[in-house]
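Morning!

This is the sequence you dropped in the shared folder:
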Amino acid sequence: MFQRARSQVAPSSSPVQDVALSRRKRGFKSPWRYHPTCSTGVRVTSVVNARGQSRTTCGSHDFAREAEPVEITVRKPTEEELDQMAVRTWPTWECDPSEFDWQYDETETCYILEGDVTVKTDTGDVHFAAGDLVVFPKGLKCVWSVAQKVRKHYRFG
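The structure's back. Tokens below.
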């Protein structure tokens, strides 16, 4: 099966590589790449594992690389946005001042009702307080530092 797929790929040549390079410069994202180990144009695929690493393979060779970092977003929503999202119907959660590790198995959106929190991630610290709408992406690993008792509405997914 791999041989059949490979036979459909244009052989590695300067014009093919030039076309692929110019397409990438213009932002074209194709699964076809020039693979330096094979010296051919091949289809590559990627899969992200639980540790945030992606495995890329051309069928003959594969290599691991770090996935893009996941970022927390914090913003002040308007009352209209809160009503549209029906935030006040979401369940509530509260926590006294403490520090603990946390991992998000799915995306969480929450609206902070009261409190003061700093979340520490590999990419830096994120601070939020009452009135903030916070989105924690799936796969995020962090440490919560609750300075003042926090109470929030939350929703997963």
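Headline: The chain has two domains: 2-66, 73-156.

More detail when I'm at my desk.
O.
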